[in-house]
Task: structure prediction
Amino acid sequence: MDLGSKPRILVVDDDQQLAELLGVVLEGEGYSVAVALDAKTALDKSKREDFDLVVLDVSLGDDDGRMVLADLRKARDTPIIFISGHSDPAERILGLRLGADDYVAKPFVPSELAARVGSVLRRSRRAAPTGPEEAAPVSEGFLIDERARDVIVGGAKVELTAKEFDLLAFLAKSPRQVFTRGQLLEYVWSSHSGWQDEATVTEHVRRLRRKIEKDPEKPRWLTTVRGVGYRFEP
Result:
């Protein structure tokens, strides 16, 4: 994202009235907004233009927003917020497992969605380099380069989403310190449990373990303190 320009948002919803309303609200918050009313238009726009975030309805008429998410993820790691008429926790967890950065159930107040957009953008924005900095190993065989946003495990680079990197880097900065899911929502997502489901944290930890651990069921680095939260083991 060019920090000197307006963040560009793509709103994808087959409800034209809602899509246009969200566009007006987000533009009022200082974003540049494009609207797509179906999956094909959304994918075409995303190929032609660069967006900083996508607001994506799970149900798009005859199309499934989850398939759109999968196609978007093949091309780039743009943050995605799912919106859905389903408030079932299982649906939210599924959306997060598929790679959404946040999940908002309808009905919602448009200003709430705008606030969530701002939160996701802040966390996904890469910090500008401030000067020479060497990557330091945080554990044997484990290296996190915050300037390049690279993670090396066992000599191999691990591909992480922006939020996965933020969560891992945060925990690694305080080795062996235990953080609750509520604390991680606050520190990493700039959110809280009254606003965002703590399952967001659980799902991101699960995805991280699949990528960095030799045995995700018996994690070496990203461990659980039962009944409390998570910590990074050096």
Observations:
- Residues 8-124 form a domain with the Rossmann fold fold (CATH 3.40.50.2300).
- Helices lie at 16-28, 39-48, 65-75, 89-97, 110-124, 162-173, 181-189, 199-212.
- Residues 54 and 80 are 5 Å apart (CA to CA).
